[in-house]
């Protein structure tokens, strides 16, 4: 005597497989348990699952594994986060210089926007200042910047290691420092960035101070 599970596919897609360590196709399965006698199913024993089966390694995982973004999705989230932080810091800085725009454009290109230019960033920040609605849906100001930053960073933070979260904050700090010391508005934006990345206040202060020290 034993138990056998008959699996039925109820959906599919792509996910990050923790067993394979990369993006893979999956099938979502539900199952029905049955008692078996000499290998023959005889009595139902209720339902089980659902589970996620990797199409490559065939291992089964709980459906919570689908909460982790794929590598492609995570890269897009990181790219958008760096772009949003760069724009927020530039907007908070008030007067923008070619130096700050150059540092910001370099960070955004490194994150994945290969064609990003200083002029494009400058135009986007001008659109924000004019409240044309091209970038931020909220009125220009601290509240609008805070909402936009949280929308970009809150979903990303749980999937980054501490070093990754610190790197995003430090990128923003370098943009702010490119044309001189932090302004109060830049500090406020960087504090919002750190909080959205779940970095504690003391650590934010330490990192912003460290960014001012030449390496």
TrEMBL record:
Using the record's annotation, list all stretches that form the Co-chaperone DjlA N-terminal domain.
109-206
Family annotation (CDD domains):
terB_like (cd07177)
Per the record, the domain of life is Bacteria
Q: Which InterPro entries match?
A: DjlA_N, TerB-like
Q: What is this protein called?
A: TerB family tellurite resistance protein
Q: What is the lineage of its organism?
A: Bacteria, Bacillati, Actinomycetota, Actinomycetes, Kitasatosporales
């Amino acid at each position: 005597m034993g138990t056998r599970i008959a699996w039925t596919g109820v959906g599919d897609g792509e996910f990050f497989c923790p067993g394979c360590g990369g993006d893979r196709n999956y099938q979502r399965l539900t199952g029905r348990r049955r008692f078996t006698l000499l290998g023959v199913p005889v009595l139902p024993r209720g339902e089980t699952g659902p589970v996620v089966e990797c199409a490559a390694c065939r291992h089964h995982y709980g459906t919570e594994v689908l909460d982790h973004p794929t590598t492609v999705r995570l890269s897009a989230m990181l790219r958008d986060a760096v772009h949003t932080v760069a724009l927020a810091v530039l907007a908070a800085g008030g007067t923008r210089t070619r130096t700050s725009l150059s540092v910001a454009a370099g960070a955004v290109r490194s994150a994945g926007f290969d064609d990003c230019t200083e002029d494009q960033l400058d135009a986007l920040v001008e659109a924000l200042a004019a409240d044309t609605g091209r970038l931020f849906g909220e009125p220009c100001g601290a509240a609008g910047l805070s909402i936009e930053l949280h929308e970009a960073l809150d979903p990303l933070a749980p999937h980054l290691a501490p070093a990754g979260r610190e790197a995003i904050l430090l990128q923003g700090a370098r943009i702010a420092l490119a044309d001189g010391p932090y302004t109060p508005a830049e500090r406020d934006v960087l504090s919002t960035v750190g909080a959205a990345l779940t970095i504690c206040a003391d650590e934010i202060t330490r990192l912003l101070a460290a960014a001012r020290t030449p390496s």
